[in-house]
Specification:
Blueprint lengths: L1 H23 L7 H17 L23 E3 L9 E2 L2 H15 L5 E8 L2 E8 L2 E7 L5 E3 L2 H4 L17 E9 L2 H13 L8 H9 L4 H5 L4 E11 L7 H10 L9 E4 H15 L7 E8 L2 H7 L1 E2 L2 E2 L2 E5 L3 E14 L4 E13 L2 E7 L3 H7 L6 E6 L6 E5 L6 E5 L6 E5 L17 E3 L6 E3 L6 H12 L11 H9 L14 H5 L6 H13 L5 H7 L7 H11 L2 H5 L13 H8 L7 H12 L1 H12 L21 E5 L7 H10 L3 E3 L8 E4 L5 H9 L2 E3 L1 H7 L3
Parallel strand pairs: 2-13, 23-24, 23-25, 25-26
Antiparallel strand pairs: 1-6, 3-9, 3-10, 4-5, 4-7, 7-8, 10-13, 11-12, 14-15, 14-17, 15-16, 15-22, 17-18, 19-20, 21-22
Organism: Formivibrio citricus
Family: Belongs to the NAD-dependent DNA ligase family. LigA subfamily.
Cofactor: Mg(2+); Mn(2+)
Length: 697
């Protein structure tokens, strides 16, 4: 047996090297026939000795049995999105903010292309790929390990003299232009659906439940960063990390560069823009990252994006088409949005039939009319928009001129007029002072708002009511069974079972999903209410600041009940919450000032919707104010999130890596490289008991 084991190990090593040369370095050292011969030899040995088959074997790239579904993966380090920039002035402003935040005159950046693909997270344990997950919503993705194993550019086992104990690499899965063309030719020859663009093809290929289909699609991969690393000290800059990834066997983009200052950023942007048509892959912009990791940590994050990075997008693709109608959509907050119904046109890889016109002011500014020829723009996944009207193509008719001997021309199509009533419920439509948006006053009586509000309430990031989709919500509203979210908790098995395409088993499953949704968190509940301008991040900040729903719905205990004359004080109180300004504060006050909104909230609580208490310290100063903490290892009783919440509530800050600015490292069992780094730098190390003592617990 040892002889066979050694032979298998030798074959795997050779095949990994040849694949790396072919797919990553683009410099094969052996012909395809030799690779195929060695692959067949390894396959035969593994079939004879299945106990020697390992997940990192090259034979595991061919795909396995179809999965029933993808399982969910929680990202230990969130996969954040980037803020976008489109104009030169945006880049100058970004560089200025970075320099001011660091207190320096010039900053070095690592610049690289922004691939038009799918973000992926790859986790390696002791150098072997153990998990691959999609970005999802940034906090939770899908486990696509079986499919990613089929991507030959992704190393199944890392190479090099020093291999980390744990390494989480972030990168992009995409499809090269030549492979996309080949795939569409094969699809067409088989009479199957062709793909609109390489990104759609890559997304469809990566999310196949049958990994054998993914294996046949020729996906590519480029690494662009590290999220976690244990057992190996990372270098101090992003550019050096990219070099490290290349040395470990990952494909990295060769078009990256290190530049300084706004002019350096813009020069790189234009240089890559000129190369863009010749690149073997699609890009929709470039990404700039502050090169120094210490400076990245110092700059930190705002909401769901880092302050130290930005995506500089290239101009969107544009086409001409005809406006066939302008309809009005009613959103979940009552906003009336004009939407242009377009003669179908192919823009940016997809066929576009609708484009948002945003609001009445925007329609009037652009003077968009039914029958006009317009310029339609689409960039990446952004909703298509009407850029402007081609006035030369506007239909005109002759009309009598200023005198009897001449004719003038006037437009055939009249200017757009915003309706005075809601097109769904007939309620008055009003436009608030200093607001661009016209809104329906029907509130929960408007069927359009009702359906949207229920969909938002039940969505995965809100109360996550399993089994309650948009089609079922339409049925429940149209049947008069549900008017507010609280009505969901009054539904009976008989009512549900009588709905179209809803049997008794499905009804039982839905009731179970509704019952399970009662157990939630305060941030989710606040977000689920659909308060205007209150997203997930703001909901989380409100929950952390106020600690309870009662405190959010009314002034602090020492203040009088919420009345008109107390609004100024209430607004000031809300604006003490991070990132809550006058507009958001006004939205919250207006929401809870409505009696029907308070009634719905109380009905939900009465129905049994509940959440664990949040302990907060509302004082501006706390026992840990001014200190920066790093958590490592497994604490005896506190989860990582619980420990972080306690530290932040006491005024402290939690960072992801150890540096000279770290005040304390809180270490638990199996603490890794962060503890070693703390001891090397002389940083104070606490146990959980030390932390509790500092908090007075």
């Amino acid at each position: 047996m040892p002889a066979f084991a050694d032979q298998i190990t030798h074959l795997k090593t050779r095949l990994h090297r040849y694949a790396h040369e072919y797919y990553v370095l683009d410099a094969p050292s052996v012909p395809d026939a030799e690779y195929d011969r060695l692959f067949a030899e390894l396959q035969a040995l593994e079939q004879s000795h299945p106990e020697l088959l390992t997940p990192d074997s090259p034979t595991q790239r061919v795909g396995g049995k179809p999965l029933p579904e993808f399982t969910q993966v929680t990202h230990k380090v969130p996969m954040l999105s980037l803020n976008n920039a489109f104009e030169d002035e945006d880049i100058a402003a970004f560089d200025r903010r970075v320099c001011e935040g660091l207190g320096v005159d010039e900053v070095a950046y690592d610049a690289g292309p922004k691939f038009d693909g799918l973000a992926i997270s790859l986790t390696y344990a002791e150098g072997v790929l153990v998990q691959a997950a999609t970005r999802g919503d940034g906090a939770t993705g899908e486990d696509v390990t079986q499919n990613v194993r089929t991507i030959r550019a992704v190393p199944l086992r890392l190479v090099g003299a020093q291999i980390p104990q744990l390494l989480e690499v972030r990168g992009e899965v995409l499809m090269l232009k030549k492979d996309f063309e080949r795939l569409n030719e094969e699809q067409a020859a088989r009479g199957q659906k062709t793909f609109a663009n390489p990104r759609n093809a890559a997304a469809g290929s990566l999310r196949q439940l049958d990994s054998r289909i993914t294996a046949a699609r020729r996906l590519a991969f480029f690494a662009y960063g590290v999220a976690q690393c244990e057992g190996l000290e990372l270098p101090g800059t992003q550019s050096e990390i990219m070099d490290l990834l290349a040395n470990l066997g990952f494909p990295v983009c060769h078009e990256r560069a290190c530049v300084s200052g706004p002019q350096g950023l813009l020069d790189y942007y234009r240089r890559i823009g000129e190369k863009r048509p010749q690149l073997p892959y699609d890009i929709d912009g470039v990404v700039y990252k502050v090169d120094s990791l210490a400076q990245q940590e110092e700059l930190g994050f705002v909401s769901r994006a880092p302050r130290w990075a930005i995506a500089h997008k290239y101009p969107a693709q544009e086409e001409l088409t005809l406006v066939e109608a302008i309809d009005i959509q009613v959103g979940r907050t009552g906003a009336l949005t004009p939407v242009a119904r377009l003669k179908p046109v192919f823009v940016g890889g997809v066929t576009v039939t609708n484009a948002t016109l945003h609001n009445e002011d925007e329609v009037r500014r652009k003077d968009v009319r039914v029958g006009d020829t317009v310029i339609v723009r689409r960039a990446g996944d952004v909703i298509p928009e009407v850029v402007g009207v081609v006035l030369e193509k506007r239909p005109m008719r002759e009309s009598p001129g200023a005198d009897l001997f001449s004719l003038a021309h006037e437009p055939v199509n009249p200017p757009f007029e915003m309706p005075k009533t809601c097109p769904v419920c007939g309620s008055h439509a009003v436009k608030g002072e200093d607001e661009a948006v016209t809104r329906c006053t029907g509130g929960l009586y408007c069927a359009a708002q009702r359906k949207q509000a229920l969909w938002h309430f039940a969505s995965r990031r809100a109360l996550d009511v399993e089994g309650l989709g948009d089609k079922l919500i339409e049925q429940l509203v149209d049947a008069g069974l549900v008017q507010t979210p609280a009505d969901l908790y009054r539904l009976t098995l008989e009512q549900l079972a009588n709905l179209e395409r809803m049997g008794e088993k499905s009804a039982q499953n839905l009731l179970a999903g509704i019952e399970a949704s009662k157990n939630t968190t305060l941030p989710r509940f606040i977000y689920a209410l659909g308060i205007r301008n209150v997203g997930e991040a703001t909901a989380r900040d409100l929950a952390q600041h106020f600690g309870s729903l009662d405190e959010l719905m009314r002034p602090q205990p020492e203040e009088a009940a919420l009345q008109k004359q107390d609004e100024a004080r209430r607004l000031d109180l809300l604006m003490q919450v991070p990132d809550v300004g006058p507009v958001v504060a006004r939205s919250i006050v207006d929401f809870f000032a409505e009696a029907h909104n308070r009634d719905v909230v109380q009905a939900l609580v009465a129905a049994g919707v509940h959440w664990p208490a949040i302990e907060v310290n509302l004082a501006k100063e706390g026992p840990l104010t001014g200190k920066t903490f790093v958590l490592t290892g497994t604490l005896p009783t506190l989860s990582r999130d619980d420990a972080k919440a306690l530290i932040e509530a006491a005024g402290g800050k939690v960072a992801g890596s150890v540096s000279k600015k770290t005040s304390v490292v809180v270490a638990g069992a199996e603490a890794g490289s962060k503890l070693s780094k703390a001891e090397e730098l002389g940083v104070t190390v606490w146990s959980e008991d030390d932390l509790r003592a500092a908090l007075g617990r």
